[in-house]
Amino acid sequence: MTAVYFNSWLEEYKKPFGAVLENEFVSFKISVEDDFVTGVTLVIAKDENKPHTIAMESYGTQQYHFDYFFNEGKGVYFYYFEVHYLDANRAEHTRYYGAIEGGGAGHLVDHFDEIKRYQVTCYKKAEVTPKWYREGVFYQIFPDRFYNGNQHGLVNHPKPNTFIYGNHHDEPMYIKDENGDISRWDFFGGNFKGIKEKIPYLKELGITGIYLNPIFEARSNHRYDTSDYLAIDPILGTEAEFLELLSELHENNIHVILDGVFSHVGRNSIYFNYDGAYGQTKGAYRNIHSRYYPWFNFNRYPDDYRSWWGVKDLPEINKDNPEFQQFIYGDNGVLAKWNKFGVDGWRLDVADELPDEFIAGIRHNLDQFEEKVLLGEVWEDASNKISYGKRRQYILGNHLHGVMNYPLREQALAFLTAGCAPETIAKHFTTLQENYPRDVFYNSFNNIGTHDTERILTQLDGDTRKLSLAFGLLHLFPGVPCVYYGDEAGLTGGKDPENRKFFPWDNIDLKCYEACQSWIALRKDNPVIHQGKFLLLYTKRLLGVLRYDSEDFVLVFFNPSNGMQAIDVAEIQTLRPLPITKERLKAIIGENQTIQEADTCVFSGKLFA
């Protein structure tokens, strides 16, 4: 330990660990083993507000402490320490103790502009989710690419000026014009009947929830260009068939989360009506007096309008418009209609594009129903995210229950393909654990692939052994795992549209399937995995995931290397305290335990002998 030391991950220096509720105390302690130190100042500020400078109290001869009361409301707080010295000439000077990267142990720097501040997240309320979600295993379905349940594979209501693949083995492709815009959308014809027919497959795999990509009427196959929020896309089926699907899923104890795309709509929607399909005088583009005109932002009417990331096919909605707000989350709005159908939750597309007040309105609507869940698409650490110059309130209470855990995918790939040190992975996730309120951390919607990423097996260069390791990380980390359709079948594919192939029903890779199924079974058979505490262990080459409570544990070591590795207890390190002694850990692991290349080693049982 250095002469000046603080570690935000150890409760002897900061208690409690992690995020804190409003109007609670956090105890800060810093060790000083330097006779020339005359005092320490805690400098803490809510976000970028004016900081409080607090002279810490001397605690014995080598420690300073202060109990800070978080009474300024929810938000992210940043802090560091000023360490005051008298040098050999009795001259006063100050050094600064801050973070190195994220949380944990820090270091001293000489200049103010070198400081990296620590973070404390202060939240309003715990986001407790229903048991069906917290204990669930989800499966993401891109409806057009899953299964067609019609007799002879007939496609429901083919759309004008589109093409339908002649074979389910065809590679997805786009037909684009000279401007790079898609001129003809492509369809395989997956539908609600197909999902319903494959419920036994989902149950056998171990799935208890499905997340559906958009299902509302649209021009494209992905349906993020909504045409009508109140209508089911006819190519998928009818409202009655959707209701039948929901009923059948619920009878089989499978819950359903829908994709809510409220940042933008399709250019050819009923709301914008660029091509006049809904009438020559309907929609904002064709009629300045349309009820929908105030929903959009025109710079110069009608052709110069704000669109999502400049994509003219996706006119951006003004989410501050009261009428649009009521249309989405009012008593008789979009959410109310589909919630009454029996939908169990919503995933908000591009949550960065939705104002906090709009998300809060959606949450208020869902809270009127029993056991609904609200998730958000956020790709980074959601606790300190800034979008459009504003610090976001996503996870501070009464907004999102949880966010998509893209950091898990990022770190899993770094570990499995890039040789990232296990210690680095541990530091990254301990920082995330520290920054998120506990319930939000456990509500994370985990993924190792989605419709927006390259297929995980492609990223792993086709190594099915490492795919099993990726499935293990997906199901062991805190959060709710979600398998992207086809990953368990060995589907490959690069960037969109290659990552959206049709499900290979006649060519499922059994090795991939059984690996995924076995990790799901491990999670289901051990409640401590979805309820228990979390700690990462590591050696130079191995990463260990420990899930535990006061009685039981599951410990899994991952070896991503191309050679056999020994589990040497003497080499095992942790960033936070191990709940058992090294002697007990050695008894659990045993002598001369090894892990084959690209493999795992699983231990479970009673935490204490």
TrEMBL record:
One of its GO terms (molecular function) is hydrolase activity, acting on glycosyl bonds. Coiled coil: none annotated. InterPro entries: GH (IPR017853), GH13_cat_dom (IPR006047), O16G_dom_2 (IPR045857). Residues 140-523 form the Glycosyl hydrolase family 13 catalytic domain. CDD domains: AmyAc_CMD (cd11338). Keywords: Glycosidase, Hydrolase. It holds the Pfam family Alpha-amylase. GO terms for biological process: carbohydrate metabolic process. This is Amylopullulanase. It comes from Enterococcus canintestini.
